[in-house]
Fold this protein.
Amino acid sequence: FFILATLFPMASKLALNAAVSELRFVLCQSSPSSAGTREFVSKSYEAIKKANPRLPVLIREAAGAEPSLFVRTAPQGVEKRLSLANLNAADVKKALESLAK
């Protein structure tokens, strides 16, 4: 874990609440408003999966899509959405932590 946190400081502490049943990132491949989301996903995806191996983490890319984070919780399947537009990677991590606590 220390090595992961050293290589990917944004990836530290990404073990999520057990009630979280799905994470979904929606982003545009080229839009400037998705830049922070793209950076966060590219640097943190592996660490999220290692810390939460059974959690589905979906990345949906679509031209012109507003960058968003969807968190689904079990058992009711309640889904929360948060816009990630124009956030930097550190703010995307904070958004994830706030929705997944």
Summary: Confidence is low (pLDDT under 50) at residues 1-11. The domain at 29-99 is CATH 3.40.30.10 (Glutaredoxin). The CA atoms of residues 18 and 35 lie 29 Å apart. The chain has three helices and four strands.
